[in-house]
Amino acid sequence: MEWSIQEIARKAGTTSRTLRHYGELGLLVPSRIGSNGYRYYDQEALVRLQRVLLLRELGLSLPAIKDVLEGQWDTAAALRTHLRLLEQERERIGRQIASVRTTLRKTEEGEELMAEEVFDGFDHTQYEQEVTERWGREAYERSDRWWRSLGEGERKAFIREQLDIGRDYGRAATAGLAADSDEVQAITRRHHGWLSRTTTPTREYFIGLGQMYVDDPRFTANYDKHGEGTALLVRDAMKVYAERHLA
Question: Exposed, middle or buried, 181 (CB in 10 Å: 0-12/13-18/19+)?
Fold first, then answer.
C-alpha cells in the first residue's frame, strides 16, 4: 500500500512543501515517483516520517535528525542532547524572568537600571552554531559585531520591534487575513527591514528563513504564541514578499 504526498501531508498534519524539503535533505525519500511527477510513499516511508516528526518534537535540528536516522547517533544520545538543551533553555528563561522582575521593580521604585541586569538571559550567541551552519561563519560574525556595537537603548528597541512584528502577524492570522493582502505585506515589509539591519536578505534567504519558522518547532512556537497558524502565515507572507521584491 502507498500514499500520495498530499495524503501523507494531510494525515501527518504537515505540508507537501515540508515533505519535499525533507526529501531534498535525504530525510524522507519517496518510495517512487509516478510518471506524472507525483511522489508516493509506502509503509516503510510512513514509519520513517513518524520518527522524523517525533524527533522534531524533541527539538532536534534537521541535520541532527539525519544523523540519528543514519545511525550516527543512537536514540539515547539524541535524548541526552535534547535534555541538555532543555536544561539550558530552562536556565536561560529563569534568568530572563529574574531580569524582568528586577527591571519592573526598579522602574516602579525609580531606581537606576544596570545593563547587565536588564539583559541577563537575553543571549544572542545561543544560536551561534546554528547560524554558522546555515549561513556561514561570516554571517554570524557580522551579526555579532553589529549587536555588540549597540547601546542599551538600541538593543531594547530592536527586541521591542521584533515583538511588535510578531504580535501584528498574530493579529493578522487571527483575523484570517491572506498572506498576499496589503495589510500582511506591510507587516512583512517591516520584517524585512528589521532583518536588513543585520544582513542583506536575498530572495532565497528570506524564503528559506520563512520555511524555517515552520520547520523548527522553537520558531513555530515563538510565532504561534500570538495565535494559532501565525508561523504558517509568516512563511507564506515572506515567500510572497520575496518573489515580488527580492532578487
Answer: middle
Of 163, 154, 152, nearest in space to 190 by CA? 163
The predicted pLDDT at position 118 comes to 47
How far apart are the C-alpha atoms of 107 and 115, rounded to whole Å? Answer: 13
Question: 35 with 61: CB under 8 angstroms?
Answer: no
Q: Hey, what's the torsion of the CAs at 193, 168, 131, 194, to 10 degrees?
A: 20
AA letter at 210: G
All 3 cell numbers of residue 240? 510572497
What phi, psi does 198 have (nearest 5°)?
-115, -15
Q: How far apart are the C-alpha atoms of 37 and 28, rounded to whole Å? A: 16
- CA Rg, the chain, in Å? 20
What are the pLDDT digits (tens) for 151-186? 777 878 888 888 899 999 999 999 999 999 999 999
Backbone angles phi, psi at 65, to 5 degrees: -60, -40
| Sequential DSSP letters for 127-181 | GHHHHHHHH-HHHHHHHHHHHHHS-HHHHHHHHHHHHHHHHHHHHHHHTT--TTS
Which grid coordinates are listed for 194? 528589521
- Residues 81 and 60: their CA atoms lie apart, in Å, by 9
Cα separation of 232 and 210, whole Å? 8
DSSP character at residue 38: -
Contact assessment for residue 73 and residue 67, using Cβ atoms and an 8 Å cutoff: yes
